[in-house]
Design a protein that fits this description.
261 residues; 6-stranded mixed β-sheet; 16% strand; Enoyl-CoA_hydra/iso; delta(3)-delta(2)-enoyl-CoA isomerase activity; isomerase; Enoyl-CoA hydratase/isomerase family protein
Length: 261
């Protein structure tokens, strides 16, 4: 199993469980997490979902070895939901989503915070949006949601620099709500999740709907723009160099790319 699911006090905790891969999302984990969100949305006994990771990582983003296989293996078989189906489930999720960032978060492990209703982060955790270092475009409507969440210039830095952001900086930006000592992270996130979960589900859903409905058109348009840019860049010279370098265990060298890349 790549996902642990536990219920307590109307809070469903989803724990990403590929610790050997820093909880990177392969097709199996995308499918399992999407299914879990869809099930939680329909379950009247669930008021809040709390998402965290097992081990040193929150999530290392999309599994780059699998991404490399997707671009090079004609026989690669995608999952039922995949990345886009997982995003569909996030966008549609009608109940509070609380994230507890326990460790490293890269790619979707960082941009998922655009969909979090509350986000808590370990003081030792770090985040990175590595799109330019992979030669690709943003994802998960982050080009729309992150400027709303942290302001334009912070979003530019996050999305264009591929730099690590520590917990204090993430809190200062507004990317997360609270920073906790590692041992306090889950108890603190759970305590706040249970405060919400004690309220009527119908009211929680109504509040979230009225807050997120004005954003839906913007999210959909951003995903369309990002998908088009990603499709254009994926498999291109910069992306091939980045993925080859990752597979070979070295830093990518973009200096020899054709002009414009």
């Amino acid at each position: 199993m790549t996902l642990q699911i536990a219920d307590e006090h109307r809070v469903r905790t989803l724990t990403l469980d590929r610790p050997e891969a820093l909880n990177a999302f392969n097709e199996e984990l995308y499918d399992a997490t999407a299914e879990a969100l869809l099930a939680a949305a329909e379950d009247p006994a669930v008021a809040v979902v709390l998402l965290t990771g097992n081990g040193r990582g929150f999530s290392a983003g999309t599994d780059l070895l699998e991404m490399h296989a997707r671009t090079t293996d004609p026989a690669f078989v995608p999952g039922k939901h995949g990345f886009q189906g997982f995003l569909d489930a996030l966008v549609a999720f009608p109940k509070p989503l609380v994230c507890a960032v326990n460790g490293l978060g890269l790619g979707i492990g960082a941009t998922i915070l655009g969909f979090a209703d509350l986000a808590f982060m370990s003081a030792t955790a770090r985040l990175k949006c590595p799109f330019t270092s992979l030669g690709v475009a943003p994802e998960a409507a982050s080009s729309y949601l992150l400027p709303l969440l942290v302001g334009r210039q912070n979003a530019v830095w996050l999305l264009q620099s591929s730099a690590w952001v520590d917990a204090a900086t993430a809190r200062e930006m507004g990317l997360v709500w609270q920073v906790c000592e590692p041992d306090d992270l889950l108890p603190t996130a759970r305590r706040h999740a249970e405060v919400l979960a004690a309220k009527p589900v119908s009211s929680l859903v109504a509040v979230k709907r009225t807050m997120t409905e004005p954003l839906r058109a913007g999210i959909a348009a951003a995903r369309e723009r990002e998908n088009a840019a990603f499709a254009e860049l994926m498999g291109g010279p910069a992306n091939r160099e980045a993925l080859t370098a990752f597979a070979e265990g070295r830093e990518p060298d973009f200096t020899a790319l054709p002009p414009g890349w």
